[in-house]
Write a structure and sequence with these properties.
Order of helices and strands: HHHHHHHHHHH
Shape: elongated
Length: about 220
């Protein structure tokens, strides 16, 4: 385990035991078995320990978006948001500890909000360019980026609160509905929304029809 990983593990354990404000950098370094110099090589502040992988995630999303084509742009947006969800799911208890801390420590809440805004700007910039980059697409890109982030956060919060046992399936449904809000059938061409699910097709077909604006009396 690297020194950074030891520091992160020690910090989260201490935050859970003592609380964020009651834990000092010296407490963290002592628990991790490293010196203060090592801490400040890895993190600028104590707050940074709470969000150690934020910049890594931003770069990963940016790479995923840049690797898309015009035809796969919306899939890339969905998969970019999925990277964040999967990161939190993989963290497990650490993600739950972070959630409790950001609910109770205003400075951490502000830091979390700033991080969400960075995700929003990244998606907005990509979508704006994909839509043509003109003044007429700026608002639509802003709205869609906000909807993507909101849908992701809705599913993530449900999982963090113990309200969801299948967050990835909920994420797929939420993103399908979000993308459906912004895709239109123009000039007789149908918009296609792609998502993954383990559910039987008969079970999800009514929702798909609703998302795509169909009614029971119309043919697919």
């Amino acid at each position: 385990m690297s020194a950074k990983d030891r520091l992160t593990e020690a910090a989260f354990a201490l935050f859970a035991e003592r609380g964020y404000d009651q834990t000092t950098v010296d407490d963290i370094t002592e628990r991790a078995g490293v010196g203060r110099t090592t801490f400040f090589r890895a993190f600028r502040t104590k707050e940074d320990v709470i969000f150690p992988d934020h910049e890594v995630l931003l770069r990963a999303i940016d790479e995923r978006l840049r690797g898309s084509t015009g035809r796969t742009a919306l899939i890339a947006v969905t998969e970019g948001a999925r990277l964040v969800l999967r990161h939190y799911l993989a963290e497990g208890e650490r993600a739950l500890t972070r959630y409790r801390l950001t609910r109770s420590v205003p400075a951490l809440r502000d830091r979390e909000v700033a991080g969400v805004q960075q995700y929003h700007r990244l998606f907005r910039g990509f979508l704006h360019q994909w839509m043509g980059g003109g003044a007429d697409t700026a608002l639509r890109a802003e709205l869609m980026a906000g909807a993507v982030v909101t849908a992701h956060n809705h599913v993530l919060r449900r999982w963090l609160r113990g309200q969801s046992s299948a967050p990835e399936e909920e994420f797929d449904a939420a993103m399908a509905e979000t993308v459906g809000l912004f895709t239109r059938a123009d000039d007789g061409e149908a918009s296609i929304v792609v998502f993954r699910t383990k559910q039987n097709l008969d079970a999800v077909l009514p929702d798909l029809k609703r998302i795509l604006g169909q009614t029971d009396g119309r043919s697919p």
